[in-house]
Amino acid sequence: MSSGIGAWGGSGTCYPIFSDFCTCIFDKPLELCEPYRKDYLECLHNVKEYKSQSSENYHKGGEERINKVREAIKRAQEYDPKKGKSE
């Protein structure tokens, strides 16, 4: 909700995006704020998510996606940052 208060207290799910949208409207012309508006509406209604879930290719390749995510997690855990390392 635009009040910033969620249904069970705390911050609402879409409030940070709504806040960015409002800030943009006050600072810039409305035409430049279209990406913020689209993000806010997507957060409220999840249209893109529902479209992708209803596509026939959504459930194909599930194992492949899971393996890619697992590999990425493994690489992130094994990553050794080089900058700021004391020698």
From TrEMBL:
Entry's localization field: Mitochondrion inner membrane; Mitochondrion intermembrane space
Disulfide bonds: C14-C43, C24-C33
Domain of life from the UniProt record: Eukaryota
Keywords: Disulfide bond, Electron transport, Membrane, Mitochondrion, Mitochondrion inner membrane, Respiratory chain, Transport
InterPro entries: NADH_UbQ_OxRdtase_FeS-su5
Record has Cell division as a keyword: no
Keyword Electron transport attributed: yes
A cellular component term, taken from the record's GO annotations: respiratory chain complex I
GO biological process: mitochondrial respiratory chain complex I assembly
Membrane topology (UniProt): Peripheral membrane protein
Summary of subunit composition and partner proteins: Mammalian complex I is composed of 45 different subunits. This is a component of the iron-sulfur (IP) fragment of the enzyme.
Function (record text): Accessory subunit of the mitochondrial membrane respiratory chain NADH dehydrogenase (Complex I), that is believed not to be involved in catalysis. Complex I functions in the transfer of electrons from NADH to the respiratory chain. The immediate electron acceptor for the enzyme is believed to be ubiquinone.
Family: Belongs to the complex I NDUFS5 subunit family.
Name of the protein this chain belongs to: NADH dehydrogenase [ubiquinone] iron-sulfur protein 5
Organism name: Dictyostelium discoideum (Social amoeba)
